[in-house]
Amino acid sequence: MPTYDFRCADCGHKFTVLVSISEKDKVTCPACSSKEVQQLITGCAVRTGGGACDLPAPGGGYAGGG
Ligand SMILES: [Zn+2]
């Protein structure tokens, strides 16, 4: 079963969950129980049809902050 990274739109908490695709809609923030969570696209999780796995983060934001 794959893992998915999410970020809470409510409190900004980032977390990883282990769920099936059909359960992704039911993911809630473990910090504030908000349902307003956004899935983060990570590494090789998604193949767009011929491309490298180590794509740079489009929006950045992984370093620092918090
Ligand atoms: Zn939250």
What does this structure look like?
The chain has a three-stranded antiparallel β-sheet, with no helix packed on it. The protein contains no helices and three strands. The mean pLDDT is 77. The protein is 0% helix and 23% strand. It has a domain at 3-45: Rubrerythrin, domain 2, CATH 2.20.28. The protein has strands spanning 3-8, 14-18, 37-40. It has 66 residues and is an all-beta fold. Bound molecules: zinc ion (ZN). InterPro entries: Regulatory_FmdB_Zinc_ribbon (IPR013429). Residues 1-42 form the Putative regulatory protein FmdB zinc ribbon domain. This is Putative regulatory protein, FmdB family.
In short:
It contains no helices and three strands.
Describe the secondary-structure layout.
Layout: E1 3-8, E2 14-18, E3 37-40
Antiparallel strand pairs: 1-2, 1-3
The structure holds zinc ion.
Can you give the helix content as a percent range?
under 10%
Oligomer: single chain
Rg (C-alpha, Å): 13 Å
Bound molecules: zinc ion
Question: From the coordinates shown, what is the CATH architecture of the domain at 3-45?
Answer: Single Sheet
Main sheet: strand order: 2-1-3
- How many DSSP-defined strands? 3
Tell me, rounded to a whole number, the average pLDDT: 77
Please report the number of helical segments: 0
Strand fraction band? 15-25%
